[in-house]
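Example (one chain per record):
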Amino acid sequence: MMRKTIFHILILLCMILFPAVHVPADAEKSEKPVYHPDASCTILIYMCGSNLESGHGLAGQNIEELLEADVPESTNIIIQTGGARRWWSDQHIANDKLQRYSVHNKQLVLEEEMPNASMGDGHVFEDFLKWGVRNYPADRNLLVLWDHGGSSANGVCYDENYGFDYLTRTELKEAMEGAMLPQKFDVIVFDTCYMGSLGTAALVKDYAHYMTASQKVVPGAGMDYKTLAESFAKYDDETLGRILCDSFFEKCRKAGQEMTVQLTFYDLAKTDALIHVLNLACASARRLNAINGLTFEIFSSAMRAHIADFSDEVNAIDLRSFVDNMYRLDLIHIADLIRKREDSLISYQVCGRAADCNGISIYYPLAYDDKQLEEYLQTGPVRNYCRLLDDIYSNLPEETISYENPGCIAEDGSFEAKLSEQSKSYLRSVIGRVWRESESFPGQYELLTDGEVETYDTDLGRLFAHLTLNSTFDGHVAALDGHPLLLGVTSRLMMITYSAPIRVNGEDTFYTFVCVKRRGKQKKLLSFLGNGLDENGLVSREIRRLKEGDLVSTYSAYNENGEKLVEGEEFTIGEDRGKLELIPLPEGRYRYQFIATDIVGNSVGSDYCIFEITEEDGIRNAQMKEVAANEETQIK
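Predicted structure:
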């Protein structure tokens, strides 16, 4: 009896210490409908036009695609419009009412009209779902959500008539639950930016069999609606998913936008299996972080997995890259299983050469927002991952980063500074800033560029650990047709994205170029124009390239944070679409400074290195003059 008791105790200890990685019994259960060629079909499109329509007419372009389609008789297409201050479409869509249309014989037919209300209100969305499934019952149903997307932590459908009110994650779930749908949607299509995430899949898995969404910016007029309208009734769901992805990519290719785009078709029945293994992995990560204090390693892994097209403000990271980079958290025993579960969830995807992602994202507060983080901690699908984030962000000290040595001239002649040991746990990034003494504003300096400092990795993948910063600035800055660019930088493991504000044909935009790291060198992959984030922090989908004849002017800046922009002289782009090059700084007096930023966005500046560039007989010389104290280290 005693031997049996000891045996049972040993078995129990093994189960506690070495939990088996298994899939919940119902996680792989399939309820997928069987395809019938003569099944009735309904496509519901919730089209919140927002500034994408009022500014660029993108929603109207998709409506025109629907009107060009040869729609099978078995397919109903129903559209609810709203959310835009102006509709450019020739279909006379109202901007002060909510309207519901059907598509018949290549015509838009008004079916119902209601007083204006926010498309970002969950009750408005719920009412559309109820009305659609009640009035257009079908064997197969597909739902499209059209507009801006806010990634895992936020939602979709930002109504510009109501202060860009949007459908939160909670509102989306409550609306679909409240609609009491008679059956799951075959597919939910997110024709929005950044919604290709585990959080989105977990949100809609109980209401749809499949989902289509992108990890990246969805450029231009988005999905191919002619193909969608013609194909839904003709193909089973999995074939339809491949067709939607391929037609989207081909549409982007024709517009010259295929390099950075990505679209995934998800089998939502596989969502719970991935969540389960991630919960186990994050439980292990929490234990190791509590013992060894690996906050920096976790954050740096997230930074190298960051998905950013225009701005660091998008808190989406590539899940596979994140797991692969966390090699110090001893996740090798489960990393392969995470990859297998992720591959199972991703039924199909298309990906441009410079997209630099693997199919599914997860939230990480790289650009810290306490309200956003709090909401995610309450609603995130991987509970141990939420607890890990809470461990990191709930107990921050009053001073996170500081300089042990604020600046000096090193033995090799470079400018050097050193951060305190405590800083390592809370460090987000370090950049080097270069100024030129201003001729236009006496007593001030003109900000030229933000340069990279190897904070997270080198090409060999070594983590920044010694906390000593050395200036690698060589006296050259990036320029477009000889005009210096005010650059910011976002670094990934294999890709670096640079972005600078410019003015093109009287319109402010951003000139962005992507470089790939190979054998210690950078090679430019592509460049394009994009409006970055609008005044509401939403990414514009209007992306194009410079062309011959464009009138362009670059900007410089005159305050510590580079916020006060001053426009330079205007020039014309030639037939080469603009030459991107490194040019030497002209003669003058300059200063260099390190800016260290912590994980919640507080920045601390080092002292300044003052140097002077002179040229004599064709020989340039950069002479170190002095190290000047920075009296105000904290930068807002």
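Caption: The chain has three domains: 41-269, 272-393, 403-635.
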